[in-house]
Design goal:
The chain is mainly alpha-helical. The protein has two domains: 139 residues, Arc Repressor Mutant, subunit A, CATH 1.10.10; 117 residues. The protein is built from 16 helices and four strands. A two-stranded antiparallel sheet has the order 1-2. The protein has a two-stranded antiparallel ribbon with strand order 3-4. Helix 4 packs across helix 5 and helix 7 crosses helix 8. The chain starts with a helix and ends with a strand. About 13% of the residues have low confidence. InterPro entries: EF_Hand_1_Ca_BS. Keywords: Plasmid.
């Protein structure tokens, strides 16, 4: 079964969401970002096989608000989180069960993650978590059981069983799962590897345009270029980013229209002044047969040509 390693080691769900948080933030709509933050919050309480998340709603609110900045979400409240849990359950992302505690007379709420629905909605987080869980599963599989210690097997020709550099690298990568996203500074722009993977030769141009948009210096032509490049590589744009690009383009059109209107008004004002002046002069002046000059004492005189 493909998902067996992840079911046996659910602790890697948290690492999957934390590592993919920047990509989810850049490419997913607000509703899905909130769900991703909720799933990371739940997964941080499911660390062993067979366990479920039984944390109280108050505890979930606290952890959710600690994680929300990574997904560009607003802090939540008690009532809002209850609605989000209902939404996640309706989408088959989680399953909630009520289990009675006979000792205290209380009903405890347990939450279980649903792998299939999460795989469909958050493929990146699923693949990362599955890959990490698979590495740990393979290591445990090689060293499982005590019979092999009492009766050693013959040397295996399988390279996976050798103490090679590959095994050491696997150990280091697994250790990095909990620290990679913690030490990484999130500036709201995806990594260089993501741009290269999606946009290939256009990666540098797309990154520069997105940085310009983040800093508020993107022009209308740049906004059109972003849309064109995303369509070229069949990559969807986040709804908030689309709204910003439309705003940049619309602002440029409004500015250009205002400049044209001001120019037209200036021409109209000049024509009006000329018409008023023509009404105040004589017929010969309008024909250019009059010359104005100053005499010896500085008085203005008229000379008819």
């Amino acid at each position: 079964m493909q998902n067996t390693p992840l079911l046996l080691h659910p602790c890697y769900w948290k690492s999957g969401f934390r590592t993919q948080a920047s990509n989810i933030k850049a490419n997913k709509p607000s509703a899905q970002r909130k769900l991703a933050c909720l799933l990371e919050t739940i997964s941080s309480h499911i660390l062993k096989h067979g366990h479920t998340c039984f944390a109280s709603t108050t505890r979930l609110v606290q952890v959710y608000n600690e994680n929300c900045d990574r997904y560009d979400c607003r802090p939540t409240t008690f009532d809002t989180l209850k609605k989000q849990l209902k939404t996640a359950e309706d989408l088959n992302l989680i399953v909630r069960e009520q289990k009675p505690n006979n000792a205290t007379g209380q009903n405890l709420r347990h939450i279980t993650l649903c792998v299939d629905a999460i795989q469909e909605m958050f493929a990146g987080a699923y693949k990362y978590a599955l890959q990490a869980a698979q590495k740990r599963f393979n290591r445990q599989k090689r060293h499982s059981g005590g019979a092999s210690v009492e009766k050693p097997l013959e040397a295996s020709a399988d390279k996976a069983c050798e103490q090679s550099d590959k095994n050491k690298n696997g150990t280091i990568n697994t250790k990095d799962l909990s620290t990679e996203s913690k030490n990484k500074i999130n500036n709201g722009v995806p990594s260089d590897s993501w741009f290269l993977k999606i946009f290939k030769r256009d990666a540098d141009e797309v990154k520069q345009l997105q940085l310009a948009a983040k800093q508020g210096r993107l022009s209308a032509s740049g906004a059109r270029r972003v849309i064109k490049l995303y369509n070229k590589h069949q990559q969807p744009l986040a709804p908030k980013f689309v709204s910003y690009l439309k705003f940049v383009i619309a602002s440029w059109h409004n500015k250009a229209a205002s400049a044209v209107k001001a120019s037209v008004n200036k021409v109209r004002d000049t024509a009006t002044m000329l018409a008023e002046y023509m009404n105040t002069i004589s017929e010969k002046e309008s024909q250019g047969l009059v010359e104005y000059y100053r005499d010896a004492v500085g008085r203005v005189q008229v000379r008819y040509l």
